[in-house]
C-alpha cells in the first residue's frame, strides 16, 4: 500500500475512535444543562412551598390572636369552641 492509503486508513480509524468520545461529551453537556434546569425548578418549588408555609403560619397566628381577643372580651367562651365529636 502506498503511504497515502495508510494515512487515510489511520485518519479513518482515528475518526471512528473519536465518535463515541464526542457523543459522550455532548451527552454530558446536555445532562449538565438538564441538571441545572432541574435544580432551578427545584429551588423555585422550594421557595414557593416556603412562602405558602409562611402565609399559613401568619393566618394561624392571626386567627389565634383574634380568638384570644374574643375570649378576653367575653364574646366567645373557651369551651364553646370545642365541638363534641360523635361516637363511632
| Beta-strand residue percentage | under 5%
Query: For the terminal residues, how far apart are their CA atoms?
Result: 96 Å
Query: Rough shape?
Result: rod-shaped
CA radius of gyration is: 34 Å
Helix percent band:
over 70%
Biggest β-sheet description: none
Taken in chain order, the helices and strands follow as H
Number of helices: 1
Structure summary, number of beta strands: 0
The average pLDDT score comes to: 80
Structure class:
mainly alpha
Report the uncertain regions: none
Describe, in plain words, how this protein is organized in 3D.
Keywords: Signal. Residues 1-24 form the signal peptide. Residues 66-88 have a biased composition (Basic and acidic residues). The chain has a domain at 33-70. Helices cover 81% and strands 0% of the residues. It has one helix spanning 3-73. The model has no long low-confidence stretch (mean pLDDT 80).
